[in-house]
Amino acid sequence: MQRKLWVISELYYPEETSTGYFLTRIAEGLADDHNVHVIAAQPSYSERGIKAPALEERSGTVINRIRSTNFNKDLFFGRLLNSITFASSVCWFVVRNFRHGDQILMVTNPPTLQPLISLIANIKRCSSYLLVHDVYPEILVATKLVAANSFLRKAMAYPMDGSLKKFDRVIAIGRDMKELLATKMPDAQASKIAIITNWADVDEINYIPRIENRFALENQLVDKIVVQFSGNIGRTHDVETVLHVAESCTGRNDIVFLFVGYGKKSGAIRQAIKDKNLENVMLLPRQPRQRLAEMLSCSDVTIISLAEDMLGLSVPSRMYNVMAASRPIIALANPASEIARCVEEEDAGWVVKQDSTATAKLTEIICRLHSKDFRRTAQTKGQNGRSAAEANYQFSHVIEQYKTILKN
What we know:
Structural class: alpha/beta
Radius of gyration: 21 Å
Strand content: 15-25%
């Protein structure tokens, strides 16, 4: 009997959030060489409310959707209950279905599952691979969901850190993340941490000039300087600094700050627009994937920000498609972060350190975009990003790295 590759992710097709999208593409990309079976939940993020089949075959994979609660993920206790019930259902499923010699590729979300699967994999003698999208429990502290000295953090840290040592390989999506994970392992085990980045959809995402761009035309952005912040607008992202910059630019009718997406901090943007009368701020809902190229292309510059203390804890995957769209990036982040390193190395934009001068530096860059010379500089940086996406961040490159790891 052919051994199975079990891909475990709470979020999976038809979810289009980053984790759901990336895990779906990875699983389907591996289906040519592996007997891929997926364990996932019913949609609870971008496609919440859709009832997907409990058992489904898609693009060479078999999808098993496990029963769990489906509370609003923006509510902490709702997300916690979803995680607990999903983990419980998955454990019951895998105890009955995993076989000696099977392979397991799981993502860190939800965190309740990581220690359990590492234990079951060892008992069942399955090869196990952990794909780290977020580092727990540190990310809960950084986003102020859990206090640094709380019992909950300490209770989570022991099994989470311990489980890292049990996986056969640990896959980080950035250099800063690998460096952080290495501090949680004995030196002898640090070599099992690999880096496989996410990717840009270079075949789907290309620059579309404003005058031909339906998204820009529909939203009356053709003649504006557009500063974009798109994707997940959640706790891990610093939207507050961007709103401060927008407030400082209220006298500039030629500049529009365009937020596109949803998440926990969407409400803060709506409130700021109302309370501070920010007529230069526009908030639009998440756009369908088929409009992603139009939406990304309509910006003059895209801000990608991380909340303070996020170094090594997460990597914003949106940057790769921004690069594919030939748009320059302002990385509001620690200079040692993966996004800052990438932007600097590829000369794909600017890095603004998150300190007391961040608002002033962001404002300076944005206000200089009215200059033709500076806009040419920005366009060159955007083109550099596109070249880097084509050379270094294509799906075909990434999936080959996964195939290599799973062969070893």
